[in-house]
Amino acid sequence: MSESTHDTSHDTPLSQRRLRTWIRLLRLTRSTENHLREFLRVNYDTTLPRFDVAAALHREAAPLKMSELSQRLLVSNGNATTVVERLEKDGYARRTPSAEDRRVVMVELTDKGRAWFEELAAAHEAEVDKLFASLGHGKLDTIRKMLHHLEGSQDDKNG
């Protein structure tokens, strides 16, 4: 019996079906992320962490505290600092001490960094669009509803 046939069988324990679903979601997430990492590396000579940091900074109208940036990205301050240093070296980001507290470092994209990110974001969106081209409005609505439901049930268990 194939996995897809077996997985839809109501004879299979629900816990096993849930585990298979988790593994399938994980596999899809990892393969998509790996594809996008390679896409950014080959086509733009950049990394996914640089893209993520630039995206977080691009969303903000004002400079962000380095600690806020790392919290938003769910990475350590050290990891965020390393990526920001590289962006700064390339002229895409700028760090400045906070006017209120000189120990606090603020970070923002430069004009060059904003232009770079906007080009990168458009290419990233187009690549994701290609990867998920088989999904129309109906399927996307269904997936989003299911993911919101799962997120809600996770929040209930964690809260």
Automatic annotation (TrEMBL):
GO terms for biological process: response to stress. InterPro entries: HTH_MarR-typ, MarR/SlyA-like, WH-like_DNA-bd_sf, WH_DNA-bd_sf. Residues 18-152 form the HTH marR-type domain. It holds the Pfam family MarR_2. Coiled coil: none annotated. SMART domains: HTH_MARR. PROSITE patterns: HTH_MARR_2. GO terms for molecular function: DNA-binding transcription factor activity. PANTHER family: HTH-TYPE TRANSCRIPTIONAL REPRESSOR YETL, TRANSCRIPTIONAL REGULATOR, MARR FAMILY. This is HTH-type transcriptional regulator MhqR. It comes from Thalassovita autumnalis. The gene is mhqR_1.
